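Exercise: predict the fold of this chain.
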Amino acid sequence: MLGIGVAVCLWWLYFDTVALAAEHRLAHTGGAARVKMVVEAYTYGHFPIVAGIIVTALGVEGVLAHAGESTPLGGFYAPALFGGAALYLGGHVLFGNRMHATVKVPRLATVAVLLVALPGAIAVPPLAALAGLVLILAALIAFETRQYAEQRRKLRR
């Protein structure tokens, strides 16, 4: 269930507003500015997003392979799990900057939280590390859903 939780969180973080906002922005931009925006956002921004998904999946796979163990997750799977999620969110920050010339501070702060939590994730059992990641991502989702409620409504109109 926790592995599915990570997948749902990653999906939500992209498709709840990021994809819609990018679609709206592209619809209102034309010519060379649109081409430049697409090239920069969908290559430079999406590379860390895709890489982050892959690396996070490696971390989840490591957790599931050792789920029944009480020994610490260790120095390979914990960095994949938390570092992959940090890379994913860093890609979101870069993508948003290229698309909207803004920086989503909550996502950038969550990158910092994930990196600070990484040493703890190395030292705890696998399922505890995965639960910690789900908790951090769910907290970001809850905060952004509440903080940007009006923007979310406008995007769906």
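Check your answer against the key: The longest helix spans residues 31-65.
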